[in-house]
Amino acid sequence: MVNTNNDIEAVKEKTRQFAEDLAASAAPDLDLSARMTVEEPEGITIAFEGADAPYMVGRNGQILDAIGFIAGQIINRRGNARLRILFDADNYRQKREETLTKLATELGEQVLATGQEAVLDPLSPMERRIIHNIIAEMPGLQTYSEGMEPDRYIIISPA
Q: Does residue 43 share a domain with residue 79?
């Protein structure tokens, strides 16, 4: 499917409006707003802002992931354009990526030093992708995923 600029702009506008409506109606007593923070050819990021934005993260970003899934189903289903829709709050995504990068590096070094596999706790697909990409840059290591969603996890092993 070819995305035209008009289709993409329509999806962006629908997503922006969805997020603003959600922030205003779902939590009228909270200090919460939404704005588009990143626009890329393949997707957009909407950030919840305000003093109560951390409440939108949930455990391990589950609320943000759920909102993104629902928004994607509603918005991408009706239009001709298909975009990745990502939600963030309190800079959670960047903080989580930094944490996962540090974890992957430390575990990778541990596997190289000991020769023993490292098994991570279950992660979301986006989080697993971060781990896979970090370990792929470390010579002598490999990763693979096992299990079924939502309990899918990564194993880091010597190559």
A: yes
